[in-house]
Amino acid sequence: DLTPEFMLDALDAAGLRADGRMLQLNSFENRVLMLHLEDGGAAVAKFYRPGRWSDAQILEEHAFAAELAAAEVPVTAPWPLAGGSTLFHCQGQRLAVTPRQGGRGPELEDPEVLRWIGRLLARLHGVGRQ
């Protein structure tokens, strides 16, 4: 059961000290939270729905996000947690944590924004092709 207490304990075991402030974010499949850290930073924690994805599938997604970030594609790649992996296991639950990144929806009526999105997608596909 993903109670707030369990989630805080799992984050602590993963090496992150949250200050107790958590905000549940929208997600269709997983439990996703914005949390504030004791060091003043903020992060997003994703607790994966059991049985939906294998560890290998999740880690492949994390590796691709890291490749995109290394290629300066604007994504938030998961942080390495306790043990060095980006995927942490705690009492049968799996979680990953990324830095919190603000943003807003694009102005899709603006042709320059559409060109920027096109360039972004081309870069994403370029990294994925490698």
UniProtKB/TrEMBL annotation:
Which Pfam families does this UniProt record tie to the protein?
APH
Do you know which InterPro entries this protein is assigned to? Aminoglycoside_PTrfase (IPR002575), Kinase-like_dom_sf (IPR011009), SrkA/RdoA (IPR032882)
Listed GO MF terms: ATP binding; metal ion binding; protein serine/threonine kinase activity
Which keywords annotate this record? ATP-binding, Cytoplasm, Kinase, Magnesium, Metal-binding, Nucleotide-binding, Phosphoprotein, Serine/threonine-protein kinase, Stress response, Transferase
Listed under GO cellular component are: cytoplasm
Cross-referenced SUPFAM superfamilies: Protein kinase-like (PK-like)
Give residue ranges for domain Aminoglycoside phosphotransferase.
Answer: 27-127
What protein does this entry describe?
Aminoglycoside phosphotransferase domain-containing protein
Lineage per the UniProt record: Eukaryota, Cryptophyceae, Cryptomonadales, Hemiselmidaceae, Hemiselmis
